[in-house]
Amino acid sequence: MIRGRRLLGRLRPLLGAASPSASPAEPRRPFRTGEPRLYDPVQDMQKGVINAYKKMKDFLPGSDWQPGHVTEGLPPDHADVVIVGGGVIGWSIAFWLKMKEPQRNAYRVVVLEKDMTYSKASTVLSAGGIRQQYSMPENIKMSQFSANFLRTINQYLGVVTQPPIDIQFNPSGYLFLASEDGAAVLEENVGIQRKEGAEISLLSPAQLKKKYPWLNTDGVALASIGLENEGWFDPWTLLNAFRNKAISLGVYQSRGEVTSFNLYTEELVTHEGDRINFSRIKGVNVQMPDSIESTQIECGFVVNAAGAWSGRVAEMAGIGTGRPDSMLGIRLPVEPKKRYVYVWHCPDGPGLECPMLIDTTGAYFRREGMGGNYLGGLSPAEEEEPDIQDLEVDHEFFQNKVWPKLAHRVPSFQSLKVKNSWAGYYDYNIFDQSPVIGVHPLVENLYFATGFSGHGLQQSPAVGQALAELIIDGRFKIIDLSIFSFNRVFKGNKAIERNII
């Protein structure tokens, strides 16, 4: 009865009961894990088996006989938290969970990643930008937190036995250009940013031309430039820094693909007579790589940080598979979208003062190093979305769509040479392009950290801490991100960020 009342309390906002929209999310029960685990019995068992095999081979000198196959990297058979997805978001969550341990090895955290080469990972294929020029206070606060984190990264992620981390941060800022139609919105956004403490300057076309003589200001009515905590950094370095630190703190890294969940489901009946299935994930089934072997991890909590593929993971928990008019019929609205990044050389292009420029057309570019190299791109129109079956690059897209816009804005780019290119996936939220952060209303131990639509890398330090707070403390403490909960999808309340690139 007590549990039923608690569940109905959580469901009441979804069933139409009035509740103040500005009130914080209802606190969840605290994170409980039992006694600290000071050793890993699974790992000890594997070591014992391997040693036994070696001793048996000693009796057969000169033979390559093997009595069986030992799969290395098997995850433990139980964990407090299983994180699906080993990108920068997943490793950030793992790090912050361990940072909140009351004592060493109090929480057993497992990170599952199917591709340890990260050849298709959104993290390492990102342009690496960070900015505070958003229209939503929550996004501004996350970027401010992340900027401070990156500035002091060695205090957080430094490992005693390893060299200091050089994130290669370039503080050249973001420069947003607005046409006459977009000037009012840009000015309004800057007002919001300044209210949150961001250092943003507005520039007229004349001021813009004086500051950046290489820029063509035709069609520009207003511009904004970030004066601090904006620029770009190396994504691969940040990913590895989070991973190395988390592993040093005791996080388990395992290569494997989640194939299904074991669910416990019970039916609840509301006062109105509606029947609602409420579930909990008891175990995660994992297919091991290059093997027919699979394993199961019993778990307390699961975090879906699978990026572009998080929609598939959600379906394994029954999300989006129910009746269209039911809560379980509402799917996680995150899909993979392919985006191109091009690198070109232009010896007469903008110099070291070149910021990350966002044109009125949506095209963007920034300097890459100091040798006259630049990288940039453009999000395609909805009707031009490329096929996601592979990561092949469409070079005609640059020639026909990107280059004309760049050459108009920066006349020296009329003569450039493309040197390199790649494609990566956005975990694109087709509902409102904002992230989904928090617990599912009907799968009580499944948490989301996905749908960032291109902004996950720069927000990863803040998101990791926020998810750790929600899991362990039952609520957001540093930054309230309840506006990004899954509940808004069911209710149809979009969280609109106007500065989407």
Please report which band the strand proportion falls in: under 5%, 5-15%, 15-25%, 25-35%, 35-45% or over 45%.
Answer: 15-25%
The gross shape turns out to be globular
Q: Which parts are unreliable, with pLDDT below 50 for 5 consecutive residues or more?
A: 1-8, 15-50, 52-71
Could you give a short account of the major beta sheet? 8 strands, mixed
How far apart the termini lie comes to 49 Å
Structural class: alpha/beta
- Rounded to the nearest angstrom, the radius of gyration is 25 Å
Mean pLDDT over all positions: 87
Write down the secondary-structure element order.
HHEHEEHHEHEHEEHEEEEHEEEEHEEEHH
**Total number of helices:** 12
What is the helix content?
A: 25-40%
* Record field, number of beta strands: 18
Task: Provide a concise account of the structure shown.
This protein is α/β, with parallel strands linked by helices and 501 residues long. The protein contains 12 helices and 18 strands.
Which short descriptors sum up this protein?
alpha/beta, 501 residues, 8-stranded mixed β-sheet, disordered N terminus
Description:
A hairpin with a 5-residue loop joins strand 13 and strand 14. Helix 3 packs parallel to helix 8 (235-248), helix 3 (88-99) runs parallel beside helix 11 (456-472) and helix 4 (137-151) crosses helix 11. The protein is an alpha/beta fold and 501 residues long. It starts with a helix and ends in a 10-residue tail after the last helix. The strands form 3 sheets. Strands 1, 2, 8, 9, 10, 11, 17 and 18 form an 8-stranded mixed sheet that branches. 43% of the residues are buried. It has helices at residues 2-11, 41-58, 88-99, 137-151, 153-157, 183-195, 205-211, 235-248, 310-316, 395-409, 456-472, 487-491, and strands at residues 78-84, 109-113, 129-130, 174-178, 200-203, 222-226, 231-232, 252-255, 257-269, 275-287, 294-304, 334-345, 356-358, 364-367, 373-377, 417-429, 436-439, 446-450.
